[in-house]
Write a structure and sequence with these properties.
Elements: H1 10-14, E1 28-34, E2 39-47, E3 53-54, E4 57-60, H2 65-86, E5 91-98, H3 107-119, E6 124-125, H4 134-141, H5 161-180, E7 189-193, H6 197-209, E8 212-216, H7 220-230, E9 233-234, E10 247-250, E11 269-270, H8 281-290, E12 294-295, H9 298-301, H10 304-314, H11 318-326, H12 328-342, H13 346-367
Parallel strand pairs: 3-5, 3-6, 4-5, 7-8, 7-10, 8-9, 10-11, 11-12
Antiparallel strand pairs: 1-2, 2-5
Helix pairs in contact: 2-13, 3-4, 5-6, 5-10, 5-11, 5-12, 10-11, 12-13
The structure holds nicotinamide-adenine-dinucleotide (NAD).
Nicotinamide-adenine-dinucleotide binds near residues 194, 274 and 305.
Length: about 375
């Protein structure tokens, strides 16, 4: 593989896979190439102690292969923590397909990818993510049983985004409870960054409860839609991070909490759906804690989607998925308490609990 290295770290230059911080003890990485369909994909299996590695397939027009590899490693590691903290018998995995989903994706390419998933005999189970759809999962289902997120007509759990949004809402209310002494969001101001599948449903919950919602998106028409449908307000200032709001909800991109933004943030709670919101987990998590900003870890509160697709594996209903997702409220509160008792960041607290669970299961598995 011709890896174009853009990362300046010397170690990573010398060890582009095992030397990556995000490699973090991955069990297996599979490079998939098919010259007939143009498929170039990478499947990352981070950890299978708790169960098969489940995580979506992202199709993205990466600048180079290095960026794709880094993304899949980071995301699959995150899935291990997400499933463990949520109490699911699943490991962590993720896949990326390199290409523009609007221009390059073909049914043949998706089927071929499904064959690669099938070749792993269930060690990895896929689902949709950015750039892939329920329709793609239905197609993959034609060649492998190791796929979730298939349509309800085909016996699947359908679109996971509304369930994800419900979990984010629960996590936000728990964080508000911790920070403001009440989980009532009536009158609280919330800035929602990203009015996509998750953002929109979240906005509907927030408006129903009487929160004042400001929205920001790169697409003006989407924001205007939120104004018309839910009475949200468009955030018109240039710098969204210094917005004078109670709650900031990142529902678009990762790494928005970084060196350039972190000292500008005036919100007292951060709770959103985007994966990997902290650019550098330890550094930025710590600064948030020092600044007294209550951060609800993303991988904990955005787990509604995986709770929903897990129902396809263990056969539970949508109602059960919503009930389990509601429990994100309790887990989030526990994480805040745990972080305070140990004087550590909420990110670290959630990761530690997840790691303890994995270690415990490892011992149980070994004793069998
Ligand atoms: P989506 O693609 O439907 O929506 C994302 C929205 O963000 C779009 O409206 C897009 O225009 C907007 N956006 C992109 N760049 C932006 C920017 N710089 N500033 C403001 N807005 C911007 O995605 P989604 O399914 O709603 O997911 C949102 C986030 O949550 C993603 O990061 C995703 O990885 C994460 N997530 C989603 C789920 C799920 O079930 N959909 C589950 C877990 C995590």
């Amino acid at each position: 593989m011709n890896i174009e290295i853009t990362n300046p770290a010397e170690l990573q230059k010398m060890n582009p896979v095992f030397g990556q911080v995000s490699f973090d003890n991955h069990e297996q990485i599979v490079f998939c190439h098919d010259k007939y369909t143009g498929l170039k994909a990478i499947i990352g299996i981070h950890n299978t102690v708790m169960g098969p590695a489940l995580g979506g397939t992202r199709m993205w027009n990466y600048a180079n292969e290095w960026e794709a590899l880094n993304d899949v490693l980071r995301l699959s590691r995150g899935m291990t923590y997400k499933s463990a903290i949520t109490g699911l018998n699943l490991g962590g995995g993720k896949a990326v397909i390199i290409g523009d989903s609007k221009l390059d994706k073909t049914p043949e390419m998706i089927s071929k990818f499904g064959e690669y998933v099938n070749s792993l005999s269930g060690r990895y189970i896929t689902a949709e993510d950015v750039g892939t759809t329920t329709e793609d999962m239905d197609r993959i289902h034609e060649v492998t049983p190791f796929v979730t997120g298939i349509s309800e007509e085909k016996g699947g759990s359908g679109n996971p985004s509304p369930v994800t949004a419900y979990g984010v809402y629960m996590g936000m209310k728990a964080a508000a409870n911790y920070q403001f002494g009440t989980d009532n969001l009536e009158g609280k101001s919330v800035l929602v960054q990203g009015t996509g599948h998750v953002g929109e449903t979240l906005i509907s919950y927030l408006r129903k409860e009487g929160a004042e919602v400001y929205v920001t998106d790169i697409h003006r028409d989407k924001m205007e839609n939120m104004v018309v449908k839910y009475g949200a307000k468009i955030y018109e200032e240039n710098d969204i991070y210094s917005a004078n709001v109670d709650i900031y909800s990142p529902c678009a991109l990762g790494a928005t909490i970084n060196d350039n933004t972190i000292y500008k943030i005036r919100a007292k709670v951060i709770a959103g759906a985007a994966n990997n919101q902290l650019a550098v987990e330890e550094v930025h998590g710590k600064i948030l804690r020092e600044r007294g900003i209550a951060y609800a870890p993303d991988f904990l509160i955005n787990a509604g989607g995986i709770i929903n697709v897990y129902g396809e594996i263990v056969k539970y209903s949508k109602e059960e998925a919503m009930r389990r997702t509601e429990n994100i409220y309790n887990t989030t509160l526990e994480i805040f308490k745990h972080a305070d008792s140990k004087n550590i960041t909420t990110q670290l607290a959630a990761m530690q609990i997840a790691e303890e669970r994995i270690e415990k299961r490892k011992k149980e598995n070994a004793a069998k």
